[in-house]
Amino acid sequence: MQQMEGQERLRTLFLRVQTPLMSRTVFFSFFLFTFSFAQAQYKDPKGYVASDSNQESPAKYDWEKNAKFKNYTRDSYYLVMRDSIKIAIDVYVPKVKKGHHGKFPTILHQWRYWRDFDLKWPYSWLSPAPNGPLGKFFKTVLANGYALVSVDSRGSGASEGSRAYPWTQEERDDMVEIIDHLIAQSWSDGSIGVAGASYSGTTSEFAAISKHPAVKAVVNMYSLFDVYPDNAFPGGIHNIGFTEVWGEANEALDRNELPPKAGKAKKFVKGVSLPKKFYDGRSAKGVFEKAQEEHKNNVNVNDGALTIVYRDDKAESRAAVSSDVFSPHTYWKEQDASGAAIYNWSGWFDGSYNDAAVKRYLTLTNPKNRLILGPWEHGGSFNAGHTNPGRSGFDHIGEALRFFDHHMKGWDTGISKEKPVHYFTMVEEKWKASDVWPPKNSEYKSVFFDEGNTLTWRNNFSTHEEKKGEMKFWGDSLNHLKSTGMNKVLKKLEGEGTVSPADEKRLAEYRNVDKEYQRVLAELNAEAPQVKQWRDNEGGADVYQVDSTTSMGMYVKYRSVSGQLKTPHTYPDRNKRDSLLFVYDSEPLVEDMEVTGHALVDIFISSSTTDAQVFVYLEDVDENGKVEYVTEGELRALHRKVSNDKAPYKQVGPYHSFLKEDGQPLVPGEVAQMQFSMLPISYLFKKGHRVRIAIAGADADQFRNMTNDEPQYTFHRSFKYPSRVELPVIR
Questions:
Q1: Mean pLDDT in residue range 479-486
Q2: Which among 52, 90, 116, 350 is annotated as catalytic?
């Protein structure tokens, strides 16, 4: 093994220049978990203090005191798989003393974006491996007494093989074989932790799905759970802004080139780091050339996505499988049975991966699992909210180490004393903890579409529904009393026994409940003729002519997933964007209102066409009329059927299968109900602000127009068609 030593003074001088230049390389292919690149793309305002650095719960972890290993060794080699494919692996081990290693737990990282890259001279001399954007994380892990193993997935980087689609079964099997190899090494203590973000977050998840007994803990950051809706087709609408850029970037990487937008990084990066030998010490000359040829057979994921409508469609490419074959949600029971502790990690501006983290957390049952949702974009480098945008101050590395130290070393890091769910409330700029998600004190409050582009909290429908709910409450209370002995007391009143003082007390309670039940029943009966009139009346409606060129711009949360978000402040021009949308505004709020959870959209729509794609945005309008984005949800009308009996996992809100058998084209002019959830959020609406619901029929810079038309939408609002959004309001 090669000792990692260098000229520290020269290296320090070099890094002052290297950081902003090398930072550009992280953007090209979604390299995550690095924080140095923030300096190159954004300068924090003077006096800026990161809101998310105020960590009371989760508490900050003093990992620096455990960073006792100053040096490490690196061994880079090809490991031959069961089918003779050679996989490129870098093994880093903390150095104890010359000629001797201790026994260390291992953190495994496997992805498809070059496990490390070679720098051109003299940068290669001044900056030893690991050099990639995960270098800071890797070196911190090593200093804290973990071995670190980084792997180029099959068909990528320096590894041989080809890829018909992401996370193939062969790639997953490789991970199991690699784990077997690692725990057999003299420096291994036999335990494996797996860490990853985005693509490698999913490989980490598949490591747990393998149920390998050595895998003890997984930190799964900023990654999908259900491939179809979480990334490629949110709401059944093709997220071409991601798949196109992702496909192009991977094609460049597979040619051992930086993607076209890598800019000046090309002056410093030679290409992927190449192992010079096999594990057994033989020369690996010629392996990379063979790997390059095999990478030419890789399939561009965007080509397949262009041919897909339904979840169960098979792409018209060599992949020839539905996305469920390589989607982690398909195998959640195996992951649950693994016993590995899973840390589900995402941010409010992390595309729809925040919802993926929630679904995974709700579905898996291991009490050791955790969920954290911060104010971050994809990768966690920035706090992306409008109140205090800037670089993240949260100790991401420390929190990951706190989790691994607890589950892999058995240390008391305080993590077991905290609640398992942590989330950050925007505007209030505060971390909060909960036993569950959504929090128990979150209740739905409906806001209804009304005439004049307004929203109302109360109307005939809401008051009638309240009375029905009240009647159900009193009716259930009566039934409960009867089932707990009240029937016996009533029989005593009929002369079948003596009524005791305790019976008299219970009887008084029963009569009071019955009185309330009869009161509400009488009110509903008296209201019945009017309710019939309301139901027979079509009511009001609003017409919106869709412009398929409408866009939410290039600063949206989905751009962060493709590594293209170039500001920490997403959605900076909502007033301009909203001028192209159909909006409904509430009256100014009379008090602060916290919305935490998943808002539920329930709208009644008719279209001039046989399909529709609806984007619904929850927004905040201040006293001066400035609009700020809060969250969103989208759904293609073709996929509107709610399939409660088919949900393969737990989630908040209606489940849409996106299967071909559940497809429902619209009948032009006929009213249809569309129910779907928005992406999760925790946001404080301030007193005096208005709640806005804005609706679009397109987001041209991010989503492909699946209907290829310019439809006219009609939003219906009446007792019969009570279009509304239900907000999860904290009591």
A1: 82
A2: 350
